[in-house]
Design brief:
Radius of gyration: 23 Å
Number of helices: 3
Order of helices and strands: EHEEHEEEEEEEEEEH
Number of strands: 13
Distance between the termini: 57 Å
Strand order of the largest sheet: 1-3-2-6-5-4
């Protein structure tokens, strides 16, 4: 994951009213914390930050230009408005080059299992520990040609060099089972109304 430079301003006003004013000015309220330092209240340029998240994901590493200095920060939490879908607030974690951080990374499934099977995906993200500047955008898992009865657990995933699995290795990621036959599906449908009648 590449590092992205972003200009940030220190915020001196706090509270809901101040946050609304910040957003009206085209900026996003943010807090930078970590390494035992006092939290810094910042304003990030809204359009540029939204583009960073879109292109680099929610684990983007930012080089923040603040008051003539610079800080390296990991995007930790992005809070989005539930209806209007704009970014309301961002939590940033202060990091150092070479430092390892624990992050949640999307899991991307590719390929198709053998014909006549049904895929169940239990996990869509996994937690890993990786260097702050070497966080993968995603972890890929190919299920091409996987046979019925196969279960893939978190410990079976191939992680990038230097990354360590934090998610429980026994956690089920995907299961490939035999697809039910048409006769089985018809039997299930016939049983459902009968059960409903008994219950009523």
């Amino acid at each position: 994951m590449s590092e992205v430079s972003l200009a940030a301003e220190q915020r001196t006003e706090f509270g809901k009213g101040a946050a609304r004013r910040t957003r009206r000015a085209g900026k996003i309220p943010a807090v930078l914390y970590g390494h035992g330092s006092d939290p810094k209240h910042l304003a990030l340029p809204a359009l540029e930050f939204a583009r960073v998240v879109r292109e680099h994901g929610q684990n983007a590493v930012l080089t923040l230009a603040i008051d003539g200095g610079s800080e390296l920060a990991l995007t930790k939490t992005v809070t989005t408005h539930p209806i209007k879908n704009y970014i309301e607030h961002v939590d940033l974690l202060l990091v150092k080059r070479g430092e390892k951080v624990t992050v949640e990374v999307p899991l991307v499934i590719s390929g198709e299992p053998v014909s006549g099977t049904l895929l169940t995906q239990d996990l869509s993200t996994i937690q890993i520990e990786a260097e702050a500047l070497h966080i993968p955008d995603q972890i890929e898992l190919s299920i091409a040609g996987v046979a019925a009865g196969t279960q893939i657990h978190a410990s079976d995933l191939t992680l990038p060099e230097g990354a360590v699995l934090v998610t429980d290795g026994d956690a089920l990621v995907v299961a490939v089972n035999e697809a039910p036959s048409a006769a089985q599906l018809e039997g299930d449908e016939a049983a459902a109304p009968a059960e409903a009648t008994e219950e009523s």
